[in-house]
Amino acid sequence: MRRIEHFIGGAAVAGTSGRHGDVFDPNTGQVQARVSLASADELDRAVQAAVAAQRGWAAVNPQRRARVLFEFKRLLEAHMDELAELLSSEHGKVVADSRGDLQRGLEVVEFSCGIPHLLKGEYTQGAGPGIDVYSARQPLGVVAGVTPFNFPGMIPMWMFGPAIACGNAFILKPSERDPSVPVRLAELMLEAGLPPGVLNVVQGDKDTVEAILRHPEIKAVSFVGSSDIAQSVYALGAAHGKRIQAMGGAKNHGIVLPDADLDQAVADIVGAAFGSAGERCMALPVVVPVGEDTAAALRGKLVAAIAALRVGVSTDPQAHYGPVVSAAHKAKIEGYIQAGLDEGAELVLDGRGLSLSGHERGFFLGPSLFDHVTADMRTYREEIFGPVLQIVRADTLEEAIGLPSRHQYGNGVAVFTRSGDAAREFAERVEVGMVGINVPIPVPVAYHSFGGWKRSGFADLNQYGQDGVRFYTRTKTVTQRWPGGGAASEQSFVIPTMR
Ligand code: NAD
Q1: Are 173 and 200 in contact (CB under 8 A)?
Q2: Does domain 2-248+457-478 have CATH number 2.40.50.140?
């Protein structure tokens, strides 16, 4: 059986903890590899490698650090097909979507290539008599990232791109479900000229994450995953004096106003609800038509569009989406479909029981559509994270703004309308971090930043963009005066002022 190991100090390092996890091919349902799960001692070995490498890396001038990222971009593009296929073979998303996963991460690396400009500080000449003040942003040292299964290319790059550009060394703890692409990314960074030890991949699970949160040499941890775990990571990391950003789950709504271009909205909603089998934190699993006429017309068009979806293996170029990630996750989604029926929602299309010829043991689920879902239902309140779309009907724009605003999650939301007034009011008032106006998946571009509100994000700094640079650096402010540079001051026992 193939082993997937750690990558520490620029080389593959075999696990010694005796613990491992199974890595499946979701298309066949078979175990295809075993991933080592690190102990606290193995993590410490990676941290020591990172500590040894970090000072030298921080001393490399930012332009030369950026050149490594430029070369990494070239290498990643050259290896795009191989990486996308590897990603699909462990995650299950279709290969074209895996390319998108890698591309969105690469865009953050492109942003990070601007690090010489991004790290420029502030300077005030003559803040007082003969006194100048400057502020610089310095790297934190060794930092870590813990990533979820659903974007094994993009999310590691969201984190290590800016962190390494800023002069930190990085420990990546990827999801144990699809751990191969993160290792390939680290290998390519080494090939691009990154010194050994600056980027390390430590495979692991909950125990490894706890060791990261307790390790005294790790100064900051970026986490992306489900909300309960994000919240506990936030709390445990803070208790150990670390800077933490912890992004959680989601339940994104698509609001359809009566004046929307319905055909366009349906095309957008179906892609956003079922792409990647709904396993995206920016998926659109809830649609809210405003008014009965809108609901009737929308439902008819949705049924037709969903019935035409093709579910297939990841390598099927005609497939709209592939299998879900694991048998356990498939069973959880099926449980939610049953719960939706039990709590009185109307199951318009039932995706359970799909069997793909030749892949009967793969983790496939057909698309499901519920109508007449209400805000008190458990299946509405919780994240399903599968190919299930729920229609929640609203009578007014006011009601439609209230649904996502009152929901425990506040990651993304979209409104479909031709009215600038309505869209503007919606965007201003809705209590959600990322808003799309006739844009179904409003993941911000790399030079803005990504972050949800409420239980979707336990952090005050977002991922990537300027926030990413702030997260991975700390400000040092120097106030200086030189002899002869201004009037000599007398001994004083009063707090200094610039009177
Ligand atoms: P998960 O929370 O199960 O796992 C995320 C990471 O945490 C993994 O690396 C895992 O090994 C680790 N982990 C698991 N249990 C842990 C524990 N008890 N303590 C500490 N660490 C633990 O999430 P997942 O199933 O891999 O990913 C799907 C979830 O991630 C969904 O809820 C999705 O909405 C969310 N997500 C959020 C964003 C965002 O930016 N807000 C982006 C992608 C995914």
Answers
A1: no
A2: no
